[in-house]
Structures are given as structure tokens and as C-alpha cells.
Amino acid sequence: MKLLSFILLMLFLSVNGQSYTIQSYNMDNGLPQNSIKDIVKDRYGFIWLSMEGRVVRYDGSRFTQYNNFKFENLSFGDFYGNIINDRITIFNDSEKDGLLISQRYPHPASSNIVTNPNTTATTHGKIGKRLVKNNITVRFVSYIDSYFIQLEKGAYYFENNSIIYVDQKNKKETKVALEFSRNRLKRLFVHGEYVFIADPEKKQILQLYQGKYSYINAPSLYTDPDTKVYWQQISGQVFMINHGKIYKSQFSDGNLKLSYVLEYKEIDKEISGAMFYDEVFNKLYIGSSINGLKILSLSDFSVSVKNLPYQDEVCYASIPYGNSSILTQEGITYYKDRSERLYKVPQSYDKRYIFRDNSGNLVYRENNSIHVRYKNTGFTKYDSISFKEKEIDGIYKSGGLYMASVVSGKQPYLYLFSHDNFNKIERRIPCHDNIDTVLRYNEDLLYLGGSSGVDVFSLSQNKVVEHIGKGLPVKQIIQTGDGNIWFTTYNRGIYLIKNQKAIKLPVDKNNFLANAHYLLEDKNSNVWISSDNGLFRVNKNILLRYMEFQKGIVTYYRYTKDHGFLNNEFNGSAYPCGHILEDGQFVFPSMAGFVFFTPQNVKTYYPGTQDIYLEKARVKGQIVQIGDKLLLKPGYKNADIYIDLPYYADLENIYLQAKLMGGEDNQWVNIKNDKTFRLANIEPGKYSLQIRFLSSEGGKFVYKSLSVEIEAYFYQTLTFRILIVGLVMLAFVIILQIRTNFLRLKNKVLKNTLVHRDRELKETHNKLKNESDYQKKLIESISHDITTPVKFISLLSQELYESEDPKNQKKYFDSIYKTSEQLYKFTLSLKEYTELYKQKNTEEEEHIIHDLIEAKKLLFEEIAARKNTFIYNFCDHHASTTVNKNILLAIFHNIIDNAVKNTTDGEIVITSSSTHSHLEICIADTGSGMSDDQRTYYFGLFHKKENLIFKNYGLGLHMVVQLMMKIDSEMTFHKNTPKGTIIKIIIKI
């Protein structure tokens, strides 16, 4: 068994260390103090640091210190408590005062809330000191009578070279039957209810469980004398540290297991006081008692360099060599974790072009010649082919063709060779630009990229048959597995060739993809794009969907030096400049080595949907707590609203943005690394601050809102302005009234004479006008209400005429039939329309609202379905009214008609509710929606009882307004979320 454990350990130790990046924080760059006692992560995702004189909260961007406590001693120690229950406690060195960290904030805790865990109940009259953490620097002093470990079901006391177990439930004491010296506590750690103590001498692990002991076998690293133990009870994490290598311990199925984390050779020098491994963000936090905080971010990328003296690490072209490595023309084989020299050659200064011919020989450009280095000689011998008085620009192999871009004088050519015989030129193709990249699309077509676009050359016709992307300087042309062709450019972005046209991809937020180099597609349809400033990842399906519909937003995930690169600048002016190896690894060249990675192993990091908090702001230099609303007093100059978001990766990748709704500028603003939104020079009023961030790879945004109210001085208020305007108007009215009275006396006699005849003429005129208005309204009502169905039938008839598919014809016939039938039923009721404005408002018979709505739903259902819109009638089957049926049908007809006209790919939901005094019908659509001006205008019509002046907003709703006034009812207009309009019809019962 020991031999097996030793073999397993040797196999385990042979695993290559994982690469990582380091962020260091101390008093010079963010930390308020250099000594860190303990580290823990709360249930909300915030990291807490215990320090001298304070506790500090870290959210990935900002350190927030808390030290405003009325304690005599602010030197805090270790964290205790329960993370899941949101109760983290910490005490100062005097063990008199404690803090309770809950709801993301620390609060002074009284003894009746939190019991000091350091001094507890005694065993045999001896004071015990609780052991909650074991680290490199812990000391077990002789003046402590008893050290103990408190578990959920019981406690272990280590005293007088013995171990005593006290059951938590019945307080029964059990003495473990073995001798135990205190110096063995340095190798103690706990997993759940199991206590383990490594014995380097016996090469065994002592296991304690509920007062019983046993010895178990484990990997020999546990019992290695050079292994140091780190255990923290509150997080449950256990680490084994051996010569700089850090392993995480786990206990499952009765076995101890180790998982390798990383190798950090400096850990022994750090005098580490605290460690925490964040598995969510793949980061290891190491707190030092003197050097502050180090954050080691484990990388999913590997960078391979050659490490040769007096040579740079700039990489360009390479070829796959084996299933997990690449080879350059310098004779160097690069693996993800090392490099080897395959053959010796002088240092190359021409690294941009290389490929392998069908015999496995290396073909590359050097000193304006084509070199062929032979595989059967171990690549030690080569031939050189040059072209007299000609310059070789580049060499390519695509679709079985061997090609070279050659310039003779000022005339560029593309040479096509006879297979791999570079001395035999089969064809010379004259070009109008130097050729920088070549792709053979099929047996006949070549895509040639140059400084002015892409030429499509036909081999059979021996000419350019298409020119794509005029004026675009093309860098690389790539064809993905689905047949799509993409090309990158010099400082002009990425393009997709579709229908022989170049369609530009949307840029990233910083426009780094303007200088994109090359792209590779993985098995999950993710596209990886190398650029001058980082490596980008985006889902190809999202890209293609955006290119087709031009809707939504395309979000790119960017990887940089923080993720493990040595340099953010990749290289792309070469052939080839990206590979997918047989083992699934991707390789891109950069200015500092080749970057290797396995796409499915590379993680993306997004916050949880509930991980954002708007709880505090800085106003006039003071921190204020925010509740449901931020209230700013008159005269404020600026306010900083802090966005608390525990996120420990690059903020650029989650598109954290904010905008102030209700202001003059409602544009989204990118939030910087300080996670602060600044308000300045905002007019008094009520606003809504909207915050959003990306929460998944699928492009889903999470939104958070905060009400903001800015109070005004009295002279800025609307009341004051109205008062001033009123006084001016009052003075004008008084002057006007005096003049009017004088003229009125003068004209009184004349008016008395004319008043009688004027009354007679007016009565006659009103009768004629009412009759004319009635006829006009009647014609308008009928023509308006049948317009949509007739237009729909006309459209279907045209499509029926143009369609040759019997299935489609049947579908069109069916739609025409259903719509015509409903239109016919509607025309039967035209007689009632002729009396619409003359009929009584109420009837003796009650009408079921659901049935009236259903009649109109059937009329418009086919029209809506044609626009991929669904109409839902959720009205109460028992709700009824005695209001005139024909008037209600005309009102419902017009509103549903408008909803159908303005809704595409959406839904129209009709509901009803009632109270003792009102019946409310709500018609909500997800269409284009009314503007704010339209809603205000129509709502205002109900408050104008006379002299209605209608704007040119359409006939239908104006008719509805008049009918609603006729039955003494009201309508309200609202904005639907996320889009559309809600119209509520309120009928008095």
C-alpha cells in the first residue's frame, strides 16, 4: 500500500505546473495596511481581509476599509462563524470586542449576539483556546492549558498529552485512548466532522471522528516532513505546501485526495498568514503579515518561448508538427510548456511564410528565395530557388495549389507552380495590387487579398470575375467549417463575404478589432480572434444572426496579459498565423511567444444576476447610505454613486454601463474600473439611474435601477414660475378688461338688436352642422373599420397569385376565407353604424365583455398571425355591462386594429378587471408603441369638453375618444415594458 501511494505521488508530481499571473497590493497601491491576518469570502461574493486597525472589503476593483469602531483595540485576528448563514465574526487581540459581518457590512457585536470563540467552557477547570486556523506561522505556546476544535457535533480538547472529546448534544466526555503531544498540532487539519493529524515519523494520518480514532493511508505528501499545512475552518479549505508547490486537500468516500493548484516558489518567503482559493474565479489569495496581498490568477493559456540568448521572442508563421506542437523555420519545436530545437539553422529574419509540401518538406521564404528543407535529411539539407530580378512577396499553399506573390519591376504577379516543383511555373497571373493572402475556394475560384480588396479569380476563365470590398486593405482570408469566408484588414475591422459583398462585423467597445489578425472556430461555434490588443472570443451564431437582422448588440470577451499572456499584441501579417492542432489545442503567434490553449477549457467569468448593489454614495465629500432612493439637496455640485459588484475579472468583458433616465442625454455610459457613476450639473427633478451588465455568454443583460431626486430652490420650482407667469397674465387681463368694458358699453345697444336674429341663425346653422358632422363621422367610421381587413385580403390575394406552392396556396385560401367571413359578419352590422352617434348610451340587456372582445379577435386573428403576432383574450367570462353594444364594438375594433397594425413578432394581451364602480378593459401590445407626445395628447382630449382640436395623429382614436365621451367613460395610455403600448378602457358601472 505504501508503494502504491508512493507511485501515485510520483505520477502526481510529474504534472506540469499551471501558469498564472500575479497582482500585488500593499500600502503603495491600494491597501491601507500591509499586515493581513485572515481572508474569507462572504455569501455575497465579497472578499474580507483582517488587518491591523481595520477590516477591509475587496470587490475585485476597490478596497473599502472599515475602522470607525469605538474599540480600544482594533488589531483584529481570525474569522469565525458561518458563511452560508451570513454570520462572519472577528475579534480583536484583547478578545473583548467583536464584529459581526452580515449583509455585506461589519457591525459591532455585543456578547448576547456573538459569543467570543477564543475563551469558552473549561474542561477540568482549565481555560481553552479555540483552534480555527492552522498555518505556517502559528505557534502553540505552553501557557495555554488546552487547545480545542469546535465542530458541529462536538469538540476536541488537546491537553496534558491527551485528547478529550465532548459531545455537543449530551455533553458527555470521551477520552481518546492514545498519547498526543502538543507539537503535533502543527500538522492538524479538518474536513467536516473529521479531524486529521499527519505523522511524518509513522508515515500515517491519525483520523478522529466523534471521539474515536483510527489511522488511514494517504498520498505521502501529507506526511512529508517538508510539507506545511494550511487549514481555515470557516471556509473549510485545506492546503498542503511542499517546496513551493501548493495542493488543495479534499476528503470524500473515506479517502484524502490532493489536487494540484500551482507552484509559487516565493510562498515560503512570504511568511504567509492567510490563504484563500476562489474556485469561482480561479484565483489564489495569499496574505502576508508584512508584504500585503498577492492574488495569483490561474491561467487557461500557456505561452511557449525559445529562451535563446540574444534572440527575441517575436513569433509569426509556423506549421503543426505532431499532434501537440508546432515548428518554425528556425528549427524550433514549440509545445505548450516548453520548446526544443529540432535542427540547427542561423537565426532567421524572415519568419512570415512557411508551409509543408506533400512530401513533408518545409517550404519557407528567406533572403528573397524559396527554401525547401528536406524531411528525409532531418531537415538539415535544403535547396534554394530564386527568381532573377524579381521580388518574392509571399508564398502560399491552399487547396493543393502552390503559389507565390512575386513583383517584377512594378507589376505584381501570382505564380502558380507545378505541384511542389518551384522551378516550373504553370501560370503567371498579373495583379493590380500586391497579393497579401490567398484562399482557394474551390477547383475554379481563388480569393486574392490585397491593399484594395478581394479579387475573385477564375482559373477556367483566366480572369477576375468579382471584386469585393473595394478600397479595403486585406490582411487574411479565412474560411470556417460552415463555408463562410471572412477577411481581416489593416485597421479597418473584420468582414464577412456574403452574396459576393463585404459585410462589416460590429466592432468591440474599444475598437481593438479594427486591427484583427486571424480567426479560428472551435467545436462550440465560438470564434477566437487574435488582434493587436488581445485575444477575443465571440459566438459565431450570434455574429451571423446580427449580420442578418442588424438587431441587438454583439458582445466580445477579451483575454489579455491578465489571463496569462506575456504580451497583448498578437501577430497576423504572416502565413499561416493560427492553428488547430490534432489534440484540439489552438495556437496563435504573438510578440512574445506562441500562445497555446484548449478552447473548451478556457473559462469566461460573469457576475451572478443578483450580485449588484447600489447602497452608498459620496455627496459633498461624505458617504451617505442609499435606501430605495437617493435624495440630493439643492445646490449639490456632484455626487458619486458607488456600484458594489463583486467581480474579480476584467470589467470590460461584462459591459458594465449606466444611464440616467429622464435627463437630456439618455445614452449608456461605460463604467470604469472604479465602479462609480458620477452625477454633475443635473437639473432639479426626478430621475431613474439604470445600471446594466452582461451576465452570460448568450448576451443577456441584467438591469438594476435606482430612483434619484434632486431638490430645487424655491425660485427653481414650477410653482414659482407659474406664479410669476400668473401675475403677468393678471396684469394684462386687468388692462384688457378696462378697455373691453368701455367698448362693451358702446356696443350694448347694437348687440341687443342683433341678438334675436343671431340666435335664430345659430340654431339653424347648428342643425345643418350636426347633420353634416354626423354623415362625415359615419363615412369615416365605416371606411376606417373595414380598411385593415380589406387591405389584408388584397395582400393575401396578391401572394396567392404569385405563389405556385399548393401548400402555400391552401394556406392563403384559408386565411382569405376566415378573414372574409369575419368581414362579412362585420358588414351585417353596418346598419347599426348608421345610428352609432344617435343611439342611446345604455341598453336593458347586459353584454359579456369576453364575447365582444372575442368577436373582434376573430376578425383580426389571421391578420395578426401573418405578422407573427398572437392575440390573447383573457377577459373575465362573467364581466358584463349594459353600455351600448355597438359603441363598445366600434371602440374595441379600432383599438385592436391599431395594435395589430403596429405589432410585429409580438403579442396583444386583452384582460379585464372590475370594482364596485368601474369596469376596466386593458389592451397591451408589444409593438412600436406610442410616443410620449401621442400619449399625452390623447389623454388630454378627455379633459377638453368643448372645442376639441384634433392633431393629425390618425382618424381611428379620435373617433374612439368621441365615443368614449358619449358613454361618459375614459381611456388611459401607458408605455409597455420593454416596448409597446397599454390602453386601459375605464367604463363606469
UniProtKB/TrEMBL annotation:
<keyword id="KW-0597">Phosphoprotein</keyword>
<keyword id="KW-0812">Transmembrane</keyword>
<keyword id="KW-0472">Membrane</keyword>
<feature type="transmembrane region" description="Helical">
    <location>
        <begin position="713"/>
        <end position="736"/>
    </location>
</feature>
<dbReference type="InterPro" id="IPR013783">
    <property type="entry name" value="Ig-like_fold"/>
</dbReference>
<feature type="signal peptide">
    <location>
        <begin position="1"/>
        <end position="17"/>
    </location>
</feature>
<dbReference type="InterPro" id="IPR003661">
    <property type="entry name" value="HisK_dim/P_dom"/>
</dbReference>
<keyword id="KW-1133">Transmembrane helix</keyword>
<dbReference type="InterPro" id="IPR036097">
    <property type="entry name" value="HisK_dim/P_sf"/>
</dbReference>
<dbReference type="InterPro" id="IPR036890">
    <property type="entry name" value="HATPase_C_sf"/>
</dbReference>
<protein>
    <recommendedName>
        <fullName>histidine kinase</fullName>
        <ecNumber>2.7.13.3</ecNumber>
    </recommendedName>
</protein>
<keyword id="KW-0418">Kinase</keyword>
<dbReference type="GO" id="GO:0000155">
    <property type="term" value="F:phosphorelay sensor kinase activity"/>
</dbReference>
<feature type="domain" description="Histidine kinase">
    <location>
        <begin position="781"/>
        <end position="989"/>
    </location>
</feature>
<dbReference type="Pfam" id="PF02518">
    <property type="entry name" value="HATPase_c"/>
</dbReference>
<dbReference type="InterPro" id="IPR015943">
    <property type="entry name" value="WD40/YVTN_repeat-like_dom_sf"/>
</dbReference>
<dbReference type="InterPro" id="IPR003594">
    <property type="entry name" value="HATPase_dom"/>
</dbReference>
<dbReference type="InterPro" id="IPR005467">
    <property type="entry name" value="His_kinase_dom"/>
</dbReference>
<keyword id="KW-0732">Signal</keyword>
<keyword id="KW-0808">Transferase</keyword>
